[in-house]
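Write out structure tokens for DNA-binding response OmpR family regulator.
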Amino acid sequence: MLTVTLSIPLACEESLTPAARRLIEAAREMLERGEGVIIGAVPADRRPDQVPANRTPTRALSPTIPALHILASSRSVLRDDEPLPLTRLEFDLLLHLVAHPRRVFTRLQLLNAVWGYEHAGVRTVDVHVRRLRGKVGVDVPLVTTVYGVGYRLADDARVTIDRSG
């Protein structure tokens, strides 16, 4: 058994760093799945609202961050309702990252999942991530580099997937 003590001031959840927010979400998910227990009561007025594991906390998103909308059936991406021209691999890479939020992928895992093979150099992934970031724009948080590991979808990414017709 592992005991972890967290002391994170929750005066204003918006002021938390993305890393602290991920830590709190992971702890909530473990509690909801019954994989953890709270030792010592936390006053109800100081306890964060419970959020189901398959939902993210609702909070006002900054209107200045453009939103991406993936239309999976037509393999197209809209940035604030404007078409974004992506190559097949850029689209597949974006769709894979968005389909697995909060998960970090190594370059080799991305080669397997997106390219379908491992024989290309792992730096190929770096090139495609750089091109994807460039096409989406620097004002859109999209792909986060996890140094020494790989890539993940950014916490502040505003991306939706439409898998209908």
